[in-house]
Every structure is written in structure tokens, then in C-alpha cells.
Amino acid sequence: MIALAYSTVGVLSFENESSFAPSYGLAMTRALILLRRRLVGSVFVLLIVVIGSFLLLEAAPGDAVDAYIVSTGGDAGMIELLRHRWGLDQSELTRLANYLWALLHLDLGHSVTFSRPIRDVILERLPTTLILMGSATALSFGLGSALGIYAGAAPGSFRDRFLSVGSLALYAVPGFCLGLVLIVVFAVDLRWLPIGGIETIASAKTGLERAADIATHLVLPVSALGVIYLALYLRMMRAGMAEAWRQDFVLAARARGLPRRRIVLAHVARNALLPLVTMLGLQSAQMLGGSVVIESVFAVPGLGRLAQEAVAGRDTPLLLGIILVSAVLVIVINLLVDLAYAFLDPRVGASEAGA
Amino acid sequence: MNRLHRFFRTPEAIAGALILALLVAMALAASLLFPGDPQAIAGPALLPPFQDWSLPLGTDRLGRDVLAELFHGARTSLAVGLAAAAAALLIGTVVGTLAGFAGGLIDEVLMRITDAFQTVPGFLLALAFVSIVGPSLGVVVVAIALSAWTGPARVARAEVLSIRERDYVAGARVIGMHPIAIAFREVLPNALPPVLALSSVIVAAAILTEAALSFLGLGDPNRVTWGGMIAEGRTVLRTAPYLSIVPGIALVLTVLGVYLAGEGVVESSAVRRSLS
User: Fold this and answer.
1) Mean local confidence (pLDDT), B122-130
2) Is B198 helix (H, G, I), strand (E, B) or coil?
3) Which of B82, B81, B83 is nearest to B208 (CA)?
4) Across residues A55-79, what is the average pLDDT?
């Protein structure tokens, strides 16, 4: 009944061809209305995340002054002075206000492990993770939905059963296990691909050559991250298609004598595709979590690896900065997905737009 | 009996049940077959598998018995997976029931908190929690539960929203039952089945999260974990890949067993529903 926990999103069936090509302006209005509503909600959610991370920061043993003193040294008088200057001797509420005020100025604090502002460290690592996640998402979404269509074209057949169980087996593989297997096979035994890192160190490559170098370094981590989540899209696609086959419009399409290929692609698969788009947004948080492990297996210097370095260096402010940035990232991705959805599905936001 | 019959109809469900039975047997037999500390040195270091029959799976970098570690690791995986999933289901059901039954502002606040937890990548949250509070079995369980309760909460809320309009809830109101009592005695038990249907996915995710945490060195240092074994073996990946492969296979089989058995349960109840 439930393919994987998240596929409870129902199959949307819309066969009214005329409503499928709404005027561009109307789609724009709907998208804007949706965007405004979501933005208001997102601010509250972000505020809760910030307060939560502040509480975690408070719960951590030691404070910023302790961390600073450990790295620089200093006496009790200096500790008192710093506490006072940084506002750490004030009440919890004042500190929360200070924290919020600093965040409003995009100031995430100072990283002790890197001796640099946290914002700079994170901004330096973010692009790598975005490339990794984007490629992995493209791989899992593209290949997953393609295989899902292949399986869902004939529900209950051998290839459907085989792909369903096979993808489940793949989904059961922990990311770091798959990563290690890929390293042993493709980097150690076959020596086809580099074992880790993001580019060849001190190779002085530029332009296209450098891009190609980074691409070869990303093949294994992207595969490890993408292949696991492939199962999710595959199973959702085939579950949605199995449902869509039972709908009347499929019968009507058959009665019209449409070729089977066209029924599968233009009618059944098309209807099962929309929930997958929603999944893209929901999945982004999980994939960010998964990239922590993958990046540390492949030594990719991204946000995930930074999180692990923060843990190793007991750098709690840095860790919480990463969490905040990830939360913002997830919110932005979900907003984009919602917008895409509003363009794809004419019913979203239609009631408010007065259509 | 009938239900069991239906469960064992598909080969997938049988395979899942067999794997889980084996796993439980391993966890229970761990201290019988391998009494004493599994982290104690048992023989020469890096002994390959199938060489010495007193150490069938060989030894690791420090000369510890891999088979003993595997058995004790099964215990940790299973304990953490079940405890974390139970905690997540409990938190999720309570939050979802409160939100759905109370409605209004309470609902709004609780659901925004749920949103916030879903916005933060679960694994990062677990990582931060364990690294701040300190790695021990209990903390790992709480950390995983913190990152997994949102799904059950949403499902429970949706279910409660439809149940609270039923006649027997109105009846309970009329006889003057306290709203809290209605929510937890009348509504919650009836909202449970769809929430419990999530349990296999949550147990599997909990086992995977625990493994990933131990792999990154954030597991309980006093317990053998499969993730920790893989991390150990990683340092000698070129010369002794079996040290990572053996616990890796155990992990994959365990998670697969949980998934398959879960699908079997859902399918057997789905058949029952469509028959009635």
C-alpha cells in the first residue's frame, strides 16, 4: 500500500487537455501567491530552527570564551573581560536576542578550528556540496524515474518485481558501504578513477581541463549518493503508474486506439510524475544529511565534510552554523520545487488566483 | 493464524522474516556463544577468514575476533534500531494526536515545530546532538528519535483529524470525558494502524543512521557496532577488505530484512482490507 513511507502523496489525475496549457500570466500570479504564503511560513520555521540551535549551543559544555582561551591562552581576568565584552554574562534572553541580531547581519560567529569567521568557511565549502547534491539528485531522479517507467509499464511482470526488489536492496545499502565498495573496485583495483578529493592537488589546471578533472573526481561520490536515493523515485514512479493504470482515462485512451507506447508515456507516466517533483524537495534534507557521510568517505571538501571536521574539533558554533545554512538551503529548494509545481499543475493556487 | 498465512504468502516476506529471525537469534546468542568482552584480543592481528576454525571470520587490526564482534554488533544495531523507532513513534503519535485533536493555535505551533525538524537534515541534527551531549547508547537513541519522529507525527495528525469527527468521539464528549482522556484513550488507539505501518521504514532508517554515526566515530565507544567495525576496517581497506565487507553485508541484510518483512505486513493487512 505504502511503497516507501513518503509515497503517500496521491496520484493526481488531470486529463483535461485545455487546462494543461494555462496562460503564462495566470501561472505567474498563482506562483507569486504561493510564494508569498510559503515565505511567511518559512520565516516561522526558520525562527524555530534558530531558537533550537541556540538552545543546543547553550547546552554544549563551555562557551565561545572557553574555546577562545583554549586556543590563545589567558588568565581569569581576561576570561571575565571577554565574557563581558561578548555579552556572555547577560541573561539567556539577552543572549538569544544578541544571537538573533548577529544572524540578521549574517554573522554566524567565529570558528575556533579554522580561526576564521564561520560564514566565510561555510561559503567556501557550499559550492562543492551544491554540485555534488545537484548531480546526485539529477542521477537519482533521472535514472530512478526512467527505471520506474520501465517497471510501471507492466505492473506485476517479472521486470517490475525484479526492479522493485532490486531497488529495495539498493536502498538498504548504507551510503558509506557503497562508497567504500566503489573505492575498492574503481579506484583501488581498476584504477579508473581517483580515490578521493575534489581535484588533483597542485596540478595548475585551468578552464575546461580543471572542470574535467573535478568531474572525474565527482563520479564516484555522485554515484554513491545518487544510486541509493534512486530506489525512492523508482518505487514512487511505479506505484503511481500502477495506480494510474486503473483510471478511466487510460481505458479511454485504449479505446481511442492509441499506441501502447504513447499511453505509457503521455498518459500513465505523466500522471505519476508530479508526486516525484514534490519528493525532490522533501528529499533534499535527507540528501544533505547523506552527503556528510559520502563527503567524509571520499574526502570531498564540502559542507558535509566540514560538519565532520566541526565535530572532530568540538567546534559547536561551526556545527550549528552548518545546520542553519542547511535549513535555509532546504527551505529555498522547497520553495523552488513549489514554484515548479505551480507551473506544472494548474490546480495549485488556482482558487486564490480566482481562476 | 489467517493473518500469518497471508504474511507468508510472498517469497519476499518469508525472506524478510528469516533474516530478522536470524538477526534476533544472533543478538540473543551473542553472550552465550561469545561470553566475555568482544573487544578483547583473541588472536594474531589481521588473520584472514576461514584460516583458523576457532576464529572463523578471522581477526581485525588489533587481533579481535570478527565473528564475536559481528554477533555483539547485531545486538547493538537491533537494540538501537528498535528503541529509537519506538521512541520516534511514541513522540510522533503524541505530538500528532495533540495537534490534530486540539486544533487551532496548538496545532499551528506543533506543526511549525514539526516543519522545523523536517527542514534540518536529520542526520546533521543527530550528529550535532551526539557530539554536544556525548556518545553513549542512550544519547544515540534519542538523537535518532529526534530526527525520525516527524513522519509519524504527520500521519497521526491526518488520521486524528478524520477520527475526531466520528460519532463515538462526540459520544465521549457528551458523557463528559476530559478532552485529554478522549484524545489519548479514544482517538489515539484508533489512529495507530497507519502510524505503525511506518515502523519498518523507521526501524531501517534508525539502523542505518546508527551505523553512519558509528562510522563517523560517534557511536558508544564501549560497544561493538557494525558501523564502527567498517570504520576500523577502512584503514586497512587495501590489504584486508573483508574487515569492511563482512559487517557491511550484515548491515545490508538486516535493513533489507526489515524492509521486506515490513512490506509483507503491510501487504497482508492491505489484502485483508480489500477482502472485507
Assistant:
1) 91
2) coil
3) B81
4) 74
pLDDT of residue A15 exceeding 50: no
Predicted pLDDT at A324:
92
Closest by Cα among A321, A332, A278 to A124: A321
B210 Cβ contact partners less than 8 Å away, ≥ 6 residues apart? B76, B77, B80, B81, B84, B140, B144, B219, B225, B227
**Could you say which of B129, B212, B217 has the minimum Cβ distance to residue A176?**
B212
Q: Which of B202, B212, B237 sits opposite A184 (nearest CB)?
A: B237
Domains by residue range for chain B, with CATH: 27-44+56-275 (1.10.3720.10)
Inter-chain residue contact B204 with A172, CB threshold 8 Å: yes
Residue A4 has pLDDT above 60, yes or no: no
Give the distance from residue B172's alpha carbon to the nearest chain A alpha carbon, in angstroms: 31
Per the CB < 8 Å rule, is B131 touching A311?
yes
Q: What is the rounded CA–CA span in Å between residue A325 and residue B166?
A: 44
Closest residue in A to B240 (Cα–Cα): A184
Give chain A's mean pLDDT: 80
pLDDT over 70 percentage in chain A: 85
Residue of A4, A174, A307 with shortest CB distance to B212: A174
**Angstrom distance (rounded) from CA A35 to CA A337:** 11
pLDDT of residue A18: 41
Does pLDDT of B263 surpass 50? yes
Q: What is the pLDDT of residue A353?
A: 52
- Selection from A221, A186, A212, A189 nearest residue A294 by Cα: A221
Q: How far is residue A192 CA from its own chain's centroid?
A: 28
Bridge partner list, A116: A111
Residue B274, pLDDT above cutoff 80? no
- Cβ contacts below 8 Å, chain A against chain B, sum to 148
State the cell numbers at A196: 578521493
Q: Which residues from chain A sit within 8 angstroms of residue B151, using beta carbons?
A: 5-6
Looking at A67-81, A163-177, A294-308, B151-165, which range is the least confident one?
A67-81
Chosen from B127, B218, B244, B265 to mutate, greatest number of chain A CBs within 10 A: B127
Do B118 and A285 make contact, defined as CB atoms within 8 angstroms?
yes
Which residues in chain A have Cβ-Cβ distances shorter than 8 Å to B239? Answer: none
Q: What is the DSSP string of A131-158?
A: HHHHHHHHHHHHHHHHHHHHHHTSTTSH
Close Cβ partners of B267 (under 8 Å, ≥ 6 residues apart) = A1, B6, B10, B13
Domains in chain A, please, with CATH? 3-353 (1.10.3720.10)
Residue A13 near residue A271, CB atoms below 8 Å: yes
A350 pLDDT tier (thresholds 50, 70, 90): low
How far B180 CA lies from chain A's nearest CA (Å)?
Answer: 26
CA distance A324 to B119: 10
| Nearest Cβ partner for A44 among B12, B112, B269 | B112
Out of A64-68, A111-115, A299-303, least confident range = A64-68
